[in-house]
Fold:
Amino acid sequence: MAALGWLTPRRRSATARSVLAGEASAEAARKSSQELEEQQALEQPAQEPEFPVVGDDKAAAFFDLDNTVMQGAAIFHFGRGLYKRKFFQRRELTRFAWQQAWFRLAGVEDPEHMQDARDSALSIVKGHRVSELMSIGEEIYDEYMAERIWPGTRALAQAHLDAGQKVWLVTAAPVEIATVIARRLGLTGALGTVAESIGGVYTGKLVGEPLHGPAKAEAVRALASAEALDLGRCAAYSDSHNDIPMLSLVGHPYAINPDAKLRKYAREREWRLRDYRTGRKAAKVGIPAAAGVGALAGGTAAAIALHRRRR
Structure:
């Protein structure tokens, strides 16, 4: 058996050098493992924090209406319904038709067009009761607006509602129209342009000015103060560069179906973008997904709504 002694490992006591080697090896293993974990973490895409935050009652969401929640302009669709109900005659068709066509094709708001539309709408409703227009608005929503709601934007609004937050429309459209749309979508309410009424009857004048551009930001600021909201935790959504004041007011601005100026502005500031339109041309000029010959024809018909009633 002695001859086989070389097969039996000899026990050797650890020397200082072997202890050093062992410790160095363990430290190297630990360090390499840590480096590997760090590298894997860098390679994995960063996960965005949960938003909207469930249960955050200091946050709310503010949505522009035209071309953000709804394809086209609400006032045009409303006017189309009024024309159907013979609130005014079929005149000056060409002028109003190309205004609506411009809005649908360019996806932007022309101040002169919108001012003309507002003046026409005010002259049309003058002398009518507010309750009458609200009732008609319910019918017009079903006829012309319901099918023009962007599903993607609707889902964003629902996410805020599901998180327990209030959701408001903010639009230059008459507040009565906006309120009908907000209620039908299950939203909290609406901020809109206020037309003067006395004794429940429209006078044909506005209270202040249209809720447009900076006025929207002021309305959101005032509502946030009244509701004790933290604007830094709120979100705002719009398609138009005209709403940059409102978008800049909140901590979570979103560009939805953005026009060229807003897209550029949003990218420079790394705002989130969502585009629910389809097709190459839509991405360039903002044609709604349902656009084309049929939609343009619909826009022309809708433009009739803005005619001034000739007595």
Notes: Confidence is low (pLDDT under 50) at residues 4-8, 280-311. DSSP finds twelve helices and eight strands in the chain. The CA atoms of residues 91 and 223 lie 40 Å apart. The two ends are 128 Å apart (CA to CA).
